[in-house]
Amino acid sequence: MNSYNIFDIKICFGHYQWEKMQGVINLMEKTNEITKDETIGTNNNKATFDNTQKSPGKGAGVTELAESSQEDIPDSDNFMKLYEESLKSIQEGEVIKGQIVQIGKEHVLVDVGYKSEGQIPIGEFIDQEGNLTAKVGDEVEVLLEREADDEGGIILSKEKAAKIKIWDDIREIYENNGVIRGIITSRVKGGLAVDIGLQAFLPGSQVDLRPIRDMDSLVNKQMDFKIVKYNKRRGNIVLSRRALLESERQALREKTLGSLEEGTVLKGVVKNITDYGLFIDLGGIDGLVHITDMSWGRVGHPSELHQIGDEITVKILSFDRDRERVSLGIKQLASDPWTDAESKFPVGQKVRGRIVSLTDYGAFVEVEEGVEGLIHVSEMSWTRKIRHPSQIVSVGDVIEAMVLNLDVAKKRISLGLKQVEPNPWDIIAEKYPVGTIIEGKIKNITDFGIFIGIDEGIDGLVHISDISWTTRIKHPSEVYKKGQEVQAVVLNIDKENERFSLGIKQLATDPWDEIPERYKPGTRITGTVTNVTDFGIFVEIEEGIEGLVHISEISTDRRGNPLAQFQVDDVIQAKVLNVSRKDKKIGLSIRKLDEVSEKDIYRSYLDNPQEATSNLGTLLREEMLHLEQQQKALAEEQEPKEEGSEDNPS
């Protein structure tokens, strides 16, 4: 039998194989010793035989041991075969276990039972924080990347072995419908990237039971997933968290359905918010809290009271087990506030509340959660004419009002805002009795008069007819401007209709009080024509005082229309016929004045014939000239008619 160097054998086998072969080598050494003893025994065969005969037990034992050793110990050929088989048992691409025997600056040496240790880059043992995770003696799983090179070394990989093992785990989890844990690393197109030891894809539709708006909020979170599909060759792994949640939800749903009963009070989580209510997750099954069942008070939108994720207590109002629909209520957890509204809000009591809504006809005030009252626009101010409540209040304002009426059956409360203050019209008559002279600014000018500010919210009206005794005013803006300070006299106060009448002309005496005395019938006046109408002419006798000369009181004019001889601004004389102080009218006559003149001429003629002759001759001459003018005018009118007759002979 050949002799082997123990060191060479150890190098060839490595630590794991060396431990296995150590016993064989020990037996080989014993065999060599026995072989030497047999050689010595041959030379002294007789002595040995004699000794054997003398001591049959001892000699038999050695012989049997030698025979046994020779049977158990392989020869050199068998030993080499064993060595070759140990090398053939490790193949490239195989994951095997090894032990760290040395840690260098660049590599870690791992004994895997090969003829030499394998090398692994030290970077595979550095964690994310830069710490070394390996130490001598640690057992690790590695992948044989490449067999022995020219120098007898082998290349190993810990990371690749881990990946291979992960794929095995993935296959096992997928086949057994198991769960795998991973960390969401980033957001990618269509979903999220997940680290499960390998890069995996989580589609956006599989993230949760409901759509997630903010995907970025899930990054760096650790979660459990189910493997939907995988392809090792392509390196694709698709995960689903929704499938896991659905299975959990289904189990919880069955449990919850068994405990749902009408009237039950339980807790839930706000899952979704719509314009018409809240969807509550009761544990595997959703229920709806309609907006009308959220509060006894006014709710503009469900989001005003709750947000997604809020845990709230609800009461089951109805449950359709067949359709699995659950109607929930929140306000039903408390009693209806209208049940004791009559005792809380008696008529005449002042209450405080918050403006919750405005309409064209008034403002709604919440005096208590679930109890609202209406302030009509007519009950907002004693003095101002309110067209819209926004002129006085705004939503959110806290105000004080008085209860005017209460109807519990219809759940209505009528409130008044102005009633909390005294009515200024109750004291205005005492403050400004009729005849009082007031002074104020013109706040508004209309076609029918001017409004003057008196007290806060109270304006007085000076009608256009009360601006001047004598001047005819077509529009108040001819005389006054907005903001102008004026004086006026209080004429009348109508508390019921809230009207305050003023007069400006009443500051002075009425000139018509003296007109009847100054212009008695028969008085001759001289005035200016201010207007010519179809029925007569108006003559201004003095400033602001006019008289009317009716057409019947104008001297007869043989030449045609008697009014044609008058124009505006003509200065004429007339005689006063009558005066009406009540109607403020003066009747004048030109005809009466002419008659008086003819009588005076005739009387003068009788008194002085010579002068009368002269006057008569003058009158005749004027009359003859007048006749000539009439004949000439008549001839001119007939000429066009004659020309028309010539053009159209009969």
Automatic annotation (TrEMBL):
Function description: Binds mRNA; thus facilitating recognition of the initiation point. It is needed to translate mRNA with a short Shine-Dalgarno (SD) purine-rich sequence.
Q: Give start-end positions of Acidic residues composition bias.
A: 636-650
GO MF annotations in UniProt? mRNA binding; structural constituent of ribosome
- What are the boundaries of the region Disordered? 39-62, 628-650
The record's section on CDD domains has:
S1_like, S1_RPS1_repeat_ec1_hs1, S1_RPS1_repeat_ec2_hs2, S1_RPS1_repeat_ec3, S1_RPS1_repeat_ec5
Which Pfam families does UniProt cross-reference here?
S1 (PF00575)
GO BP: any one term: translation
Mind telling me which PROSITE patterns this protein's record contains? S1
State the family named in the UniProt similarity comment for this chain: Belongs to the bacterial ribosomal protein bS1 family.
Q: Which domain of life is it from?
A: Bacteria
> Record's InterPro entries?
NA-bd_OB-fold (IPR012340), Ribos_protein_bS1-like (IPR050437), Ribosomal_bS1 (IPR000110), Ribosomal_protein_S1-like (IPR035104), S1_domain (IPR003029)
S1 motif domain: from which residue to which, for each copy? 93-159, 177-242, 263-331, 348-418, 435-505, 522-591
One cellular-component annotation, GO: ribosome
Question: Any idea what this protein is called?
Answer: Small ribosomal subunit protein bS1
Composition bias type Polar residues, residue spans: 40-55
Q: Keyword set for this entry?
A: Repeat, Ribonucleoprotein, Ribosomal protein, RNA-binding
